[in-house]
């Protein structure tokens, strides 16, 4: 198992090597015609070109390898995902994006494994990188970071991270994940009116979620309804949550919800 610190250190090292290699090739292509008199320049350029194409092809295979990890994580095949991610992180890739995806998938895996500290470390390291070509990765990394910080009890850090997400244009899946994290945060600061506001739209998102996430969302909304004086809403939402998940499992995940079944 590769640690967060080791993965981050490997990313920094390989990013430096990749940058040096690229600039060396560019510099060589510029300087060779000026300084390489007597050398078979055509052959030299051919060798450089073949080497570059080979590295590019190898890195393209790395992108394909990195793409398999999320499906393994989603299906609960954590050991298989660990092996794939470790291969990506430990190998050298010409394309920086391959290593960044590997780091992102490791953060997702650690989050799924409930290793909150490692997940937060990896997500923060990823967000320090230039992710202009990977906007989806940047948004997901912020969501993973916010949820991990909540689990670690860092409410201020979670709030700061959530604020950085609100102004962004999200996909449907990202919007559902944001709602789940947002309700969790608001319940911890007892922002019950904010949780209950716009409840119809929140329910529409909840209905599209997987069963466990949907149950937790509706239970959180039921608690907010109870706290804001809407007993009919609270009872209805509580019953819907009961249909989706065992109450003991739900309250074990979020002890604050025990109030609904006292």
User: What's the total helix number?
Assistant: 14
Count of beta strands? 0
Shape: elongated
Q: Provide the succession of SSEs.
A: HHHHHHHHHHHHHH
| N/C terminus separation | 42 Å
Description:
- The chain is mainly α and 262 residues long.
- It has two domains: 132 residues, no CATH class; 92 residues, no CATH class.
- 78% of the residues lie in helices and 0% in strands.
- The protein contains 14 helices and no strands.
- Helix 2 runs parallel beside helix 5, helix 4 runs antiparallel to helix 5 and helix 5 runs antiparallel to helix 6.
- It is elongated.
Helix and strand arrangement:
Layout (H helix, E strand, L loop, with lengths): L3 H32 L5 H27 L1 H6 L3 H13 L5 H17 L3 H12 L7 H17 L3 H12 L5 H17 L3 H5 L2 H8 L4 H17 L3 H14 L2 H7 L9
Outline of the structure:
The chain has helices at 4-35, 41-67, 69-74, 78-90, 96-112, 116-127, 135-151, 155-166, 172-188, 192-196, 199-206, 211-227, 231-244, 247-253. α1 runs antiparallel to α5 (96-112), α4 runs antiparallel to α5 (96-112) and α5 runs parallel beside α7. The chain has 14 helices and no strands.
